[in-house]
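Our working data are protein records whose layout never changes between entries. An example says more than a description, so a record of this kind follows.
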Amino acid sequence: MPRGTDRHITAPARWRKSLAWGLALAVSAGAAQAGPQGNEVLLVLDKASLVAVRPDGRRVGGERLAGSVLSLRIQGVAASRVRIDRVRADPDDASGDILLYELSDARAGGGPVCAPDAQGIAAAVAVAGTWSTQGSRVSADGITMACTSDAMGKCLRWGYRHWLKTPAGAPMLDHYTACTRAVTADYCGTGRGHTRDGTLIDIYDKAGVQAPAPDGKLAFEAGFSAAGAVCIAKPRLDRDTLEETVAACPAKLAATSGPQRCTEGAAAAAGALVFIRSR
């Protein structure tokens, strides 16, 4: 089962201040991008794979995009140019829908954009839509490149594929967003996390994407919807008290939180889509 959380992204120094949530490496859908030979192309998304559409209609994707330069808008920072150094299949994705993009600053001497994740992968995945610093998708237009070390990248690779539907017919997008809230312990749904790198977690759901770990070593923490936690049984971090955590959004959580009131069953009844266990 997925365990561990890491919500940070490494980027060139001039970008780091704007990347606190690590979410917005946004490429405008249909915007002209430089292809491998310097040609301007239209960039579109097929599930989680970038596809360049040439002026003559030819489509180029996969490993053939290596060498392309993207113009990215990074959370309020003026557009910056990022090079795709390598494209490869996600080793954990048997379907082949998800590709990993190793990105670097396109300027001379520029370094990698993404920090390595727990597997040592320093790459990004492509997510449909434009996302706010508060962690909500504000538009279906655009493409967001999310590092595999970031909550958005983790949740996509863990199986919460936003273009699918659950067995019950509900959009998987809500489960995907709930997963990003859960990974970062964004209880209030405002983009403010309550976690630290490397914290052990167990994430699961009722939709059949992830099942809880069978060892039972972690305690129930909270249930999450796309808008944040529906209740908190206990804060993730020892330094935080339940009272302090709930005080950040009392109207949302005060009446439902606490180890007696916030159980897995109560969270599910309140609309939780994803559940978290932690130490």
In short: Confidence is low (pLDDT under 50) at residues 3-33. Residues 172-184 form the longest helix (13 residues).
